[in-house]
Structures are given as C-alpha cells and as structure tokens.
Write a structure and sequence with these properties.
The complex is a heterodimer of chains A (307) and B (427). Chain A is α/β, with parallel strands linked by helices and 307 residues long. Chain A contains 12 helices and 9 strands. In chain A, the strands form 2 sheets. In chain A, strands 7-6-5-8-9 form a 5-stranded parallel sheet. The chains are: A alpha/beta (307), B alpha/beta (427).
C-alpha cells in the first residue's frame, strides 16, 4: 500500500494498514542507526521545523535526529503561550513559518486540536508531536513497534496501561492504535484519573493495580504530570507511589516474559521503582531507540521521498 | 401605513387560530382578522400570502446584542436587523455588555439606542449583581424604572446561594423573573461536554451534572421564596427531568433551550471546529433526545437563540481559547422547524414556544394576533429549502456551525408595529 495522507495528526485517523506500513518502514530504517555512518541522503534538501509550545527535550531531539539521519535540514522553534500575550497567535506563527517553505512541521502544543488547526493553515505536512491530552501518535507507533519487536506480534497481547489516564495523550493514542488489533487493554489508575466513559473506547477499567497487571504481556506505565496539576487528583505523591507505583511484586504477577514500558521522562520512585525501571523486563531504552526509527519512517512517508 | 395580508394560513396559538384568513393592519395595530377582507383604500399594501403561514412575530428571550462596548462583534442595529430577518420582532438582550447593564444609565442607553436604530422591539435584561461579579445586588429597581423586564448574570451562575435568594426576594417588588444561567463553576472547568467525544478529543470537559445541580438549586430557592425563575439554555437530560418534576407543584418555573441543543451532539466537537464551542456545551445524543422530548411534553416552554455573535479572530484560534457562542438569530427558526418536519411538535406547538410562552413568562404584550394587538407579524414558508451561508448573515457574527447546512422552512417577511422591516428578496 502507499501513503496518501498529507499529515499525521493522530492515530485515530489511521487505518490498520497505514499503521503497519509505518511500522514496516521503520523496520528498514532501524538498521541505519546501527551503521558507522548513520546517515542516508533520502531527505536531502528538505526542511523540517519543530515547533514546540511545550518544552520536551526528548521528543524534539528524537525528531531532530530522525530528520538529520535522513539528511534533512532541521530548525527548532520554541514558542510558548506567552506569545499569545504578545498578540501572536498560532495562526500568525504558522503563516510566518510557512513563508520559509518547510516540508514538514512537527508541532507540540498544550491544547488539543492545535495540530489540526495548523494543518489547515499551512501546505507543509504537519506531524502531531503531542497536543494536550489528545494524541501523541509517534509515541504510540514507537510503543507498538517495540511491542512487536519484543513479542513478535501485537495480536493477542494483554496490555495494562497504568497511571493518569485522564490527562495522558500517550494512553489515548495507544488505545486508538491497539484497538486496530486483537488486543486486551486494561486501564488502571486512581478513580480520579480514570475519566468516565473511558470504557466506551473498548477498554477495561481496573482500579486495583494487582488485578490490572495479572497475566499482562505488556505493562505500560504513565508519568504523573506534576506540571499539569496532576497532584490535585490524588492526596499525595507519596500515597500514589504506595498504591500505584510499579514494584517487583507486580511484575511477578504478570506473564514471565512481560515487558515494562514508560514513555518518559520517568519519576523514579514515584510511578516506577528504580529496580523495575532498570530491571530485565524493562524496554524503556529500546523505546527511545525505536522512536528515532519510527520518526524517520513517518518523515519519509509524509515527504513522499524515494528510498 | 396599511397592510392587507391575503389568504395566508394564520396560526396564533394564544388565540387558538389556525385557518386561512386575511389580516388587516392599520396604524401599527391589527385592525381586523377575517375570512375575506375587502380593501377599502387605495393606499393599502396588499400581500399575497397564499400557501404561506402568517404568525405572530417571534420573541427571543435570550440574545447578546453586544452594545455598548463590543460593537465590533454586534450592535443593536445589526443585531436587530438579524433578528427581523430570522422572524423575531421582540428580543431580550443580556447584560454582559461593557459597561455591564447593572445600572439605569446603561439601561437607558440601550432603550434609547434601540428606539433610534433597532429594527425590532428590544427589552433589556439587567444584571443581578454589580459587574456580574456575584458579590452585591445591582440597582434592580432603578433599572426596572428604566425598562428592564428581567434580571440575569447570564454568562455565569450566581455562585452565592444567599445572594441569589435575596435577588429572588427583591424582584417580588417588581414582579420580574430572574433568568438563571445554570452552571456550577467548580464543576465546569472545561470547554466541551464530558462524554465519549471528550474522552477521544482530550479536551477538558464539563459534565452535565454541572448544569443539573444548579437547575435544582435555583428552582429550590425560587420555590422557597415563591418567586418566578426562568432557567435559560437548558442542555441536559437531568435538567429537563428536574424541571418536569418541580413544575408539578411549583408553577413559577419556566425554561428555554436553544436550537443547537436539539440539533447537534458533542460529536461535532471532534472536528475541533471552534464554531461548535458553546456554553453550555453541545451534549450527548441522549441529552439531545431528552431536550426534544422536553419540548414535546411541555417541560421546556420556550425556544431561545442565545444569539452570541463574535468577531472572526475570537474563533480563529485553538479550541480551548476560542470564545463560546453561536450567531443564532438567522438560523434558529428554520432549525426549529425541523421539529415539525420530524413530528416532535405541530406548527402551532412550535410557534407557541416562540410566541405565547415567552410573552407569558416575561409579561410582554406581544406574541399574538387579534384585533387591537400590536401588528408584529411574520409570513413564512415552512417548506422553502435553502442553504445556510454565513457570509450572507446580516449579523456581524458569522460564527455558526451550520454553515452549508440545508434547511427547510424560512421566514419571508417581518412586520414590526405595522411596518415591514424585512422582506426576503426572491430572484
Ligand atoms: Zn448563558
């Protein structure tokens, strides 16, 4: 199949075939990162702008490395909401950037829908690098890539997603992605962090972490978003870590070959103990590595480049 | 000016009229309604209404005319021109202007400006509290002397129950209702309805209970005090249920909903189109069905527009920071006619929601057709098909989620006080 979309705004817009196309393409790019010269000329002459309204070193750097390994020129634009105060709207910024003729704009924004708005303004391809609590499609793709790599399949997996589901774009995108496959998804967290109607997305809700991780093939931990007032949903970080922090005991309840995932950055000792994060089941660093390959694949497909 | 409307199907719920009749207008009033009225003079404008419906001019109890202070969004002139195009001959304008209509000089300004430039009748709604701040009562008596017909802090609910109680007590002196915008501030820190769509979009959401809780509280206070209360722009099933329950014993409760709450669901917000952002938010399919049922069974008395015009830039931003509201005057009646086409209401029942019911709730001497009454009349074609084009709006507010929508039924001619103030140009 061929890629036909101008943008990557969310997983929800993707078909199963499109998801698989990205994963398969990423497979072929993963090797490049292992070569001595980690660079191919595929995107030479193309320009990729990363427009980040929220600070995120890891996602921005991952996109930047992905673009550079494909020989694209990259430009980082850090904006913040204070530009609203100065009177410059996302629309103004977008129009300014557009006049510089970029091929791709990667946008991270604290408000849901901002990438969708941007895509209507600019001719460039737009990649959603995370919009509020809405979507983070490349994260979900790299998570699936890692699952498939470690488990050899996606179908048939039992996946426990644990933490602040309500405010997590990672959880949402993963749910949208995994629902395309024959998977069982269990969402677990304090009731204040599980939004009502979540089951309408076809997932099971479980408040007890011991029950959630039982026989899981994948345990996906989420970060407590301290900067988003996440703390007001629970009595204390301390209590949260006591009840919902992932410990060795929990891992034992899962399948023997369980993998532990985390989108990072981790609050060590809060949602996950250091022991588990650095333990044999953890694939957290593989996720980071695969992130580059998946983003290379997305950039490649969106720019319609010839391999 | 004399007008003779010939052969229209005259429908007036208040006086139980529904038959083909002629209507003779003279000097601002209806002089005669009869089977065949012969033209007496040669200076009479004769309007052939054969195949069309002749009804009392519509009354909208909830509009934002934005003047004074936000004339770039709307003015009394443009807002009332939009009103008469939509079939409204009387509008009640909310107090959240700048300055706020919380004292008689602002009320007087609105009254004066409406008389000078308004295309239809305008009745201001005064604020309940000074500056809409919810701290102390506005000068309700002085505003009443100047012309207000109700009070409301619309845009927000009066958070302090004791203060709302005082407002309900104080208005007894003037016999005007309190209009309640039902929204619990603490529960409504969001921009869309809390439901499946918000779970998908990740937009901060407002649960229906944020409305329902205040509906219950405000009715309880009104009942305790014994004062009339009008609950505006109801959107949730639970609200309709409570109103129905309380109305069984307490008769001074009235309420309205708006066309978007029985036409659109929260699924529309998945587009991130800021024109779908309203307050209260578009609700679930179940709520929409309950609103329709409430209109059918009489729990909901009135259809209002909550006409909330905004300038282009207020909507051309990210969803979260866009302003809330729909420019509704020019589409409301046509959207509501869908209720008739769907069989929810008959024509007379629908017209009651726009004429008799609002006139009764707000003690306005309009909304009926009988000899001696003011000649506020519309002529519409319930079958005319047309497509909403926001660029053709008279209102300065082009903010509508209905742009491009095909509708059935349209107002063709509007008479206010015996003068033709709007006439559809047919090519
Ligand atoms: Zn309101």
């Amino acid at each position: 199949m061929n890629w036909t979309k101008k943008d990557l705004l969310g997983i929800r817009e993707l078909s199963k075939e499109e998801i698989l196309l990205i994963l398969d393409t990423a497979e072929s790019f993963k090797d490049i990162s292992k070569r001595e010269v980690k660079k191919v000329p595929t995107l030479r002459g193309k320009t990729v702008i990363t427009l980040f309204y929220e600070p995120s070193t890891r996602t921005r750097v991952s996109f930047e490395i992905a673009a550079k390994r494909l020989s694209a020129d990259t430009i980082n634009v850090s904006a913040n909401t204070s530009s609203y105060v100065k009177g410059e709207t996302l629309k103004d910024t977008a129009k300014n950037l557009e006049s510089m003729q970029p091929d791709v704009i990667v946008i991270r924004h604290e408000m849901p829908g901002a990438p969708h708005m941007l895509s209507k303004i600019v001719n460039s391809s737009v990649i959603n690098g995370g919009d509020g609590a809405h979507e983070h499609p490349t994260q979900a793709l790299l998570d699936m890539f890692t699952m498939r790599e470690k488990k050899g399949r996606i179908d048939g997996l039992k996946i426990a997603i644990i933490g602040d589901i309500a405010h997590s774009r990672v959880a949402r995108s993963n749910i949208f992605a995994l629902k395309n496959f024959d998977t069982e998804i269990i969402c677990c967290g304090p009731p204040t962090m599980i939004p009502p109607y979540l089951e309408d997305l076809g997932v099971r809700v479980e408040y007890n972490i011991n029950k959630a991780v039982k026989n899981a093939d994948v345990i996906m931990m989420l970060r407590i978003q301290k900067e988003r007032g996440g703390v007001s949903y629970i009595p204390s970080i301390n209590e949260y870590s006591t009840i919902y922090g992932l410990k060795q005991d929990h891992v034992k309840k899962a399948k023997n070959d369980v993998i532990i995932m985390h989108p990072g950055p981790m609050n060590r000792g809060v949602e996950i103990t250091g022991e588990v994060a650095d333990g044999p089941y953890s694939v957290i660093l593989d996720q980071v590595e695969n992130g580059v390959a998946v983003r290379m694949a997305v950039l490649f497909l969106l720019t319609g480049s010839e391999a | 000016m004399k007008i003779l409307i010939k052969k229209g199907r005259v429908i007036d719920p208040r006086n139980g009229i529904d038959e083909v009749l002629d209507v003779y207008v003279n000097g601002g009033f209806i002089e005669k309604i009869d089977k065949h009225i012969r033209e007496k003079d040669h200076d009479v404008e004769i309007i052939d209404a054969d195949g069309l419906i002749v009804a009392p001019g519509l009354i909208d109890v909830h509009v934002h005319l934005r003047e004074p202070g936000y004339e770039y969004k709307e003015s009394i002139k443009t807002g009332t021109m939009a009103a008469v195009k939509g079939g409204f001959t009387t509008v009640v304008c909310m107090a959240n202007t700048n300055p706020v209509n919380d004292n008689k000089s602002v009320t007087e300004y609105i009254m004066k400006q409406s008389k000078a430039e308004g295309a239809c009748r305008v009745f201001p709604c005064g604020a309940i509290t000074k500056g809409l701040k919810g701290i102390e009562l506005a000068e309700i008596g002085e505003m009443f002397e100047a012309g207000i017909i109700a009070i409301s802090d619309d845009g927000k609910s009066v958070r302090n129950s004791e203060l709302l109680r005082k407002a309900l007590e104080y208005t007894k002196l003037f016999g005007i209702p309190v209009i309640s915008h039902c929204e619990d501030e603490d529960l409504s820190k969001g921009f869309v309805h809390e439901g499946k769509a918000s779970i998908i979009s990740g937009i901060d959401a407002v649960p229906s209970i944020a409305e329902e809780i205040i509906v219950k509280r405000d009715m309880a206070l009104a009942e305790y005090v014994g004062s009339p209360i009008h609950l505006t722009h109801l959107s949730a099933k639970g609200s309709v249920d409570s109103v129905r329950e309380v109305k069984k014993r307490f008769k001074k409760v009235t309420c309205d909903t708006c066309p978007h709450y029985f036409t659109l669901t929260d699924e529309e917000t998945l587009s991130f189109d800021t024109n779908t952002k309203v307050n209260p938010p578009l609700r679930s399919k179940e709520d929409v069905e309950a609103i329709k049922e409430g209109l059918r069974n009489g729990s909901i008395d009135i259809i209002a527009t909550d006409h909330a015009p905004h300038d282009f830039t207020s909507k051309d931003v990210e969803f979260n920071i866009a302003t809330s509201g729909i420019s509704g005057l020019e589409t409301a009646f046509s959207l509501s006619l869908a209720l008739v086409h769907e069989g929810v209401l008959d024509l007379s029942g629908l017209l009651r929601k726009f004429t008799e019911a609002p006139a009764k709730a707000f003690k306005l001497p309009y909304g009926e057709l009988k000899p001696g009454s003011a000649a506020d009349i519309i002529i519409f074609d319930p079958a005319a098909r047309w497509t909403v084009d926001r660029n053709a709006f008279i209102s300065k507010g082009k903010n509508t989620p209905f742009h491009g929508r095909k509708l059935r039924g349209k107002n063709l001619l509007t008479i206010v006080g015996g003068k033709i103030v709007y006439r559809e140009k047919t090519p």
